[in-house]
Design goal:
Blueprint (H helix, E strand, L loop, with lengths): L11 H4 L3 H7 L4 E6 L2 E13 L27 E6 L3 E7 L8 E11 L1 H8 L11 H8 L16 E4 L7 E4 L13 E4 L17
Antiparallel strand pairs: 1-2, 1-6, 2-5, 2-8, 3-4, 4-5, 7-8
Length: about 200
């Protein structure tokens, strides 16, 4: 029996589903990181979905070897890479093994270990601790060598069950040069912890 709700882990079947479904359903779930410095956690408030070789914004469309191989692997694995040579980003591998997909965790609402997050980020401003994919990795102490961590079994990095988002906003993906036209970015409506660009697209139809 777990000592805390944060010790629970979402099962692999959750991730072994269509990427868009996982991206939306991750909203409200809780990313937990444990390092020698302490434990930190944040509720997911923003995600983006990335598909396979047919998605021009996906690494799988341009790369076949190296870290990106994780996108073809078992669901529930952490795909961690460095963006623009600066920021470490956390993605969650989705779809059954052999099918390519991943969800970028774009923003968190800090829940636990906030003082540690503030020291790592060098700011006391709560909305700035995890409001962006690079910021949240810095706040949680997620490093490049965490790539390949199994979020279902790891004692270092996992996702715990949370409460589903009451209202979800949708838009095109941001911070990319291709594939912005797809409505594959999801966030918790009204959250002050969302990274940026909070203008939602109107519902289709």
């Amino acid at each position: 029996m777990s000592d805390s709700p944060l010790d629970e882990r979402i099962g692999r079947d959750f991730y072994a589903r269509p990427t868009l479904h996982v991206a939306r359903d991750l909203l409200g779930q809780v990313v937990v990181s444990r390092t020698p410095d302490g434990q930190t956690a944040g509720r997911i408030v923003e995600t983006e979905a990335y598909h396979g070789p047919d998605d021009p914004a996906s690494h799988a469309a341009r790369l076949k070897q190296g870290r990106v191989e994780a996108m073809w692997g078992e669901p529930g694995i952490a795909y961690v890479y460095r963006s623009y040579g600066i920021h470490v980003l956390l993605n969650v591998v989705t779809e059954p093994a052999g099918v390519t997909g991943a969800v970028l965790i774009r923003a968190l609402e800090p829940l636990a270990g906030i003082e540690l997050m503030q020291r790592r980020r060098g700011t006391d401003r709560l909305p700035l601790l995890c409001s962006g994919p690079g910021r949240l990795c810095q706040a949680l102490g997620i490093a490049l060598d965490w790539h390949g961590a199994d979020l279902v079994t790891s004692d270092r990095l996992w996702i715990a069950p949370g409460e589903p988002a009451a209202e979800v906003s949708i838009s095109g993906r941001i911070g990319i040069s291709r594939g912005q036209e797809h409505p594959w970015r999801f966030w918790v409506a009204g959250s002050p912890h969302v990274s940026a660009h909070r203008r939602a697209w109107p519902p289709a139809g």
